[in-house]
Amino acid sequence: MKAVGARLPRYDGLGHVTGRTQFVDDVRVGRTLWVKALRSPHHHAAITSMETSKAEKLKGVHAIVTCADVPKNVYGHLEALGVPADEPLLADGEVRYKGQPIAAVAAESEEAARAAVEAIEISFEEREPLFDIRKALDGEAPQIHQWGNVYPHYGPYNHRRVRKGDIEWAFENADAIVEGVYRPQAIEQMPMETQVALAVPEASGRLTIYSCTQAMYFSMGVVAAHLQVPLNKLKFIGGTVGGGFGGKVDTAADTVCALLALKSRRPVKWRWTREEEFLASSTRAPWHIEIADAVTNDGWILGRRMLTLHDSGAYSRFSPYGVTKHAFHHTGAYTIPNLRFDGFVVYTNRVPTTAMRGFGVTSVSFAVETHLTRVAHAIGMDPWQLRLKNANRIGDTSGNGVAMKDPSTVPVTLAAAERVGVELPAEFRQMTPEPRSGDLLPEHLREQQRLNGEDS
Amino acid sequence: MAKHRGRGFATIEYPTGMNQNGDPSQAWIKLKPDGRVDVFSGTVDIGQGSKTVHTQIVADALGVPYDWVTMDNTNTDSSAVCTGTFASRGTFIGGNAVRLAAERVRERIIDIASKELEIDPSDLEIENGEVIAKGAPQKKIGIPDVAGAATYNYGELISGSSTALKPFADVDDSTGQVEIEPHSAISYAACVADVVVDDETGEVVVEKLVQVYDVGRAINPTLVEGQIEGGAIMGLGLGLTENSYPYYPSPENRGGEFGAYLGPALHDLPELDNVIIENPSEDGPFGAKAIGEMANNAQPPAIATAIFDAVGVWVTEMPATPERVLEALEAKREPRRDGKRVIFDEHISVRTVSSNGGEGFLGVDA
After folding, report:
1. What CATH number belongs to A31-126+189-279?
2. What residues of B are in contact with residue A392 (Cβ under 8 Å)?
3. Peptide bond between residue A101 and the one before it cis (omega within 30 degrees of 0)
4. Cα separation, B44 vs A238, whole angstroms
5. Predicted pLDDT at A451
6. B26 reaches A (C-beta below 8 A)
7. Which residue, A112, A173, A374, B306, is the most exposed by fewest CB within 10 angstroms?
8. Which residues of B touch A348 (CB under 8 A)?
9. Average pLDDT, chain B
């Protein structure tokens, strides 16, 4: 029997449904200490003083870490891709979102750790926060990030750009220009397993970290960078995760546990409460998307202008990557030869947003698809036909200029139409993904194929 | 006051692999002395089923029964690099890593079998755990015997390793253009939503979703359907109920517990009609593309356009909560027309909301 294509049962399914799979919080190691964190109660504030000595003396407390204990406190998830670091592991002099970790305690019990957190003496001076990304570059907007309110490192630009074809020509020659605004908002990844880590200092001097990360080598790199140790000092144990959906691409609990384990010389476990998971762990980003499509009365999309603002929250994390991915897919499943796109990563005083299922593109799908149905109504055309006419075809070029090899806009759209009994004219029913020809290859689309070196 | 039916749909695409590539997955495989197969891969299974899919890929790439294969993805000492479980890359890139490693092991098995059978390697093939002479199936040797001979006669460990890596695609920051494909593959999907909108309460109920996915090749159709159906529930949350910031952009009134945050549950699940299309990718393992992330992308626009079909108003701030639907019904906004321009949603645009006309965002160089 061939295995590929077979409906084989899940490799680990029986363990999952009978409760025998070992997740991170199921791992019990003797003498483990428990962690609680001091988190910012303010959206934006200066830390004017902090004193941990009273908390350190409480019964059962073994170690407290603050930013002063982290060999490299500021790290960036995308440093390897040339994106500079901007986020402290533990806040240093300033907090930029409610829930931001400032200090962490390892103690004999979660209760003792919580009592020690409450005994840390800290004072703040509140600052004006920024929440509305549309106002981030207004003259009176508070400056909330060291780089200003938008991410400035797309080469020489403060935004991710796409420029393709002749956008002025498209808008001049269009019969209609349809404009709309789309605002998909933040949701939680909401895994059953909250963020959790267990760090065990070994006799060999290594640290074993039981992690719920979605990416063991990535998280190991993050911990190694914060600790400034080579990778052979760390062993990550993981690979089985109780739901991630993108939220566990961020390395949330591992590094703090590692620091506390080294400082206390004891195994240390930190398991976030459900409330922390909801309120202090990252969310999907809210987006603001403005589309203007230049269209002809017979349903060709000649060009698109698009402005995207991505609500990054307080730090960059993966947002610069997410906006680039968004930019690369801003035409959706369609071929639009003339483009002008500007996408901004905008900082606000909310929990940093991060990867979530569909990162960068879920927002495109919502905006583009809702918009195309509006376009169809505006020009009096059937929305199925509008999509099929402009569908990606073999040899078309994408927004960033690469030739498409195996696009399926046409087959999936036709299959859905047939399944629900939508009647389409024969010329649409008979469409395939094969290269454009005849009426489906007007002059404005010949040009985009030539740009790609395709000989039409 | 009435309930109105509507239908909407969306067609979407989604890339496989990290945007701009440069994201390796590595794997290595060794044979036990009885021919059973140990696979070491760092791909984290977050519930999507990568352990199962990778095991299936190795079984067929080697030509051994599925239950001979053991998958170890438990730690960074024994596993090599996997960039991670994200970007819908597990089946394609992680899968290619184990496939390529298995092909190397297959070559080693045939080399040893060639010595044992005294037949040229090019005349041998592997099927169901046996190395067989092409055209002379009576001449064969079981892989357990090959592995035993390797271990005890030839002093060899049959093993193989590989890396799946597509080179990084540099982007021109002024134009967004790239020289090489910045992804491994593109998957496509279409979704049709049938909804009922109550114009008194603003409540939207999705009664049926028809969902068509081109996944290249369904390595395990049951797991693909699991992704489609799990993704559908998540898409309902995105489209209708979930919001971390109910009064966005205000940060207040966040839900800090399940009872205060409206994730959809099984009772919200509509009738589902799933269609899998296989338009293979030339580079994917056995033609596979991906399914993971895209599975929650098509429902929200299908629902938004279905609401328009039902009651004639656009809700373009997602999710379409009862409050937003009622507000849109009340406001009955029409687009402003200016020459050939048809301008929707002006009241929420950057130009309107910003105190300086959105100059910082709208005024960038052409």
Report:
1. 3.90.1170.50
2. 13
3. no
4. 7
5. 57
6. no
7. A173
8. 249
9. 97
pLDDT at A78: 83
Q: Which of B44, B304, B335 sits opposite A213 (nearest CB)?
A: B44
Q: Could you identify the residue written with the tokens 């797309």?
A: A154
Percent of chain A with pLDDT over 90: 95
Shortest CB distance from B56 goes to which of A3, A213, A243? A3
Going by pLDDT thresholds of 50, 70 and 90, the confidence category of residue A89 is very high
B276-299 pLDDT, tens digit per residue, is 999 999 999 999 999 999 999 999
Q: What are phi and psi of A269, to 5 degrees?
A: -120, 135
Mean predicted confidence (pLDDT) in B243-248: 96
Chain B residues touching residue A3 (CB < 8 angstroms): 55-57, 59-60, 66
pLDDT at position A1 is 66
pLDDT of A450 reads 62
pLDDT tens by residue, B102-159: 999 999 999 999 999 999 999 999 999 999 999 999 999 999 999 999 999 999 999 9
Provide the pLDDT for residue A455: 45
CB-based contact A181 B364, cutoff 8 Å: no
Contacts of B9 in chain A (CB under 8 A): 383-384, 416, 420
Q: Tell me: pLDDT of B211 over 70.
A: yes
User: What mean pLDDT value characterizes chain A?
Assistant: 96
Q: Which residues of B301-332 are buried (b: 16+ CB within 10 A; e: fewer)?
A: bbbbbbbbbbbebbbbbbbbbbebbbebbeee
Asked if residues A344 and A135 have their Cβ atoms less than 8 Å apart, the reply is no
The conformation of residue A285, written as its DSSP 8-state character, comes to P
**Phi, psi at B223, each rounded to 5°:** -70, -35
Nearest residue in B to A278, CA atom? B256
pLDDT value of position A289: 98
Q: Which of residues 275-334 of B touch A (CB under 8 A)?
A: 275, 277, 279-282, 286, 292-298, 300-302, 304-305, 308, 314, 316-319
Residue type, A214: Q
Q: What is the CA radius of gyration of chain A?
A: 26
pLDDT at residue A456 in the model: 40
* Domain extents in chain A: 31-126+189-279, 160-187+283-451
What average pLDDT does range A416-428 have in this prediction?
97
Residue B213's φ and ψ, nearest 5 degrees, are -125, 130
Are A353 and A282 contacting, i.e. CB atoms less than 8 angstroms apart?
A: yes
B3-15+183-321 and B18-164: same fold? yes
Tell if the CB–CB gap between B52 and A180 is shorter than 8 Å.
no
CATH architecture of A160-187+283-451: 2-Layer Sandwich (3.30)
Which class does domain B3-15+183-321 fall in? Answer: alpha beta
ipTM for the predicted complex comes to: 0.97
CB B353 within 8 Å of CB A132: yes
**CA dihedral (B302, B303, B306, B311) positive or negative:** negative
Q: Whose structure tokens read 């929990």?
A: A351
| Per-residue tokens: B243 | 């919001």
Question: Per-residue confidence at A454, pLDDT binned at 50, 70, 90?
Answer: very low
Is B59 in Cβ contact with A362 (below 8 Å)?
A: no
Domain ranges of chain B: 3-15+183-321, 18-164, 334-366
Q: Does the beta-carbon distance from B364 to A290 stay under 8 Å? A: no
Of A156, A215, A399, the CB nearest to B173: A156
Interchain pair B15, A365: CB under 8 A? no
Q: How many CB atoms lie within 10 A of CB A8?
A: 23
What are the residues facing A85 on neighbouring strands?
none
Q: What is the CATH number of domain B18-164?
A: 3.30.365.10
> Is the Cβ of B68 closer than 8 Å to some Cβ of chain A?
no
CA separation (Å) from A383 to A98, A366, A368?
44, 15, 12
Q: Do A216 and B8 touch (CB under 8 A)?
A: no
CB-CB neighbors (< 8 A) of A234 in chain B: 76
